[in-house]
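@channel sequence for tomorrow's demo:
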Amino acid sequence: MDDIQAFIRRLPKAELHLHLEGTITPATLVELSQRHDATPITLREAEALYRFTNFTEFINAFRAVTKQLIHADDYELAAWRMMQHLAEQGVVHAEVFISVGVIYMWRNHDPACFEPIFAGLERARLRAVGELGLSVYWIFDAVRHFTVPEAERVFAKAAAMRAEFPSIVGIGLGGDERQCGSEPFRDMYAHAKEAGLHLTNHAGETTGPEAIWEALSIGSERIGHALSASADRELLQELKTRSVPLELNPTSNVRTGVCPSFREHPLRQYFDAGMLVTLNSDDPAFFGSDIANEYLLAHTEQGFTRDELRNLAANSFRASFLPASTKNSWLNKIAET
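structure tokens (generated this afternoon):
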């Protein structure tokens, strides 16, 4: 076991479906609470927040943790801790969701609130480049079950800031699919594409394959979760033919109760079918499994060989928004690992 873990650690990897707020550990949550609360939360209380059994409880826990992110320094701390942990696992590139929709909603829609926060995130990113050799791109995530105007605000901010900050590469739709699909955001996706932003979308996590079809119809380039695609043979063929990257998150799906176990997750089915699948941790602090452990579980629970793990790592770069030359460089290094 130690040997395969060392191999996974050495393997250059990109993580493409990772929420900044979901990387905050109970210990960091306590540290943030000590900054802000008259009666800080205890570690035991913090750990209790991370115990949930379904998707709704997870959303509530995510909300409670995110409310401790108040100042730019809080975001910088969370981002730096995230980046340190990524580097420890052999991750060399990450494309990270920031819940910009939540930031606006909880700050009374103040248009000036975000720039200082983003400055803190950028300080952490630049430090990671210099000290860890880790590259990070940002994806501005709207909350689909907030209002459509709230999402417009998020996507417009991404477009406006992209010229100054090339690290902003895309937009996404997170939140509760059961409350809102993708169709209301069609025009926004078109405008984001015109602005040079990449288009990601959470789809088929808590809903059926029709949600994935809908996400594709509005131009989504990458699909997060895509769990329910396994129920639609025509959709599987469409995803394969178009080489649509899938950001799979097996442990996340198990912990939120939408998949019975890692062994029963369609990761293996999709991979064997020749689809462009990537392995990710989603919200590792909440789900108790980081990206290195997801690779390990793919090996122990679904029988992925070293060559197949190499292919998963290679897929993570193929599906990334990195320049072609950078992708090829990492693909060559994976082949040598």
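heads up for whoever presents: Residues 5 and 200 are 30 Å apart (CA to CA).
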